[in-house]
Amino acid sequence: MTEAARLKLRAIDVTLERYGNQFARLPDLGVAAGESVAIIGPSGCGKTTALMALAGIRAPQSGTILIEDTDPWTLGRRSRDGFRGRRIGLVFQSFHLVDALSVRANVWLAAQCAHYPVHDPDRLDRLLERLGLTSVSARRADRISHGQAQRTAIARALLNRPAVILADEPTSALDDANTEALMALLKECATAEKAALVIATHDRRVLSAVETVVEMEKPQ
Amino acid sequence: MTAVALAFAYLRRRWGQALLSIVVGALGIAAVSTAFIGLDALPDAAERSWGGVDLVIGPKGSALDLVLCCALHVSDPRGLVSERAAMAAAGHPLIRVAAPIALGDNVNGIRIVGTTPRFLWVYRADLNSGRVWTKPLEAVLGAQAARVLGFRIGDSFVGAHGLAAGGEMHSQFPYKVVGILAPTGSVIDRLVLTDIETVRYIHRKHQEDEAAETGVSETYVNLPDAATAVVASYKSPVAALLVPRLIETDPTLSAASPSFEVARVMSYLRPLTVAATAVGLLLVVIAAAAAAAALMATMNARTRDLALLRALGAGTWSLASVAFAESALIAMAALLVGLGLSAFLVFGGAQLLAEQTGLLLKPAIHLEDLSYLVGGALIAAAVAALFPAVRAARTAIEELLQS
Question: Distance (Å, rounded) from C-alpha A93 to C-alpha B299?
Answer without folding.
Answer: 22
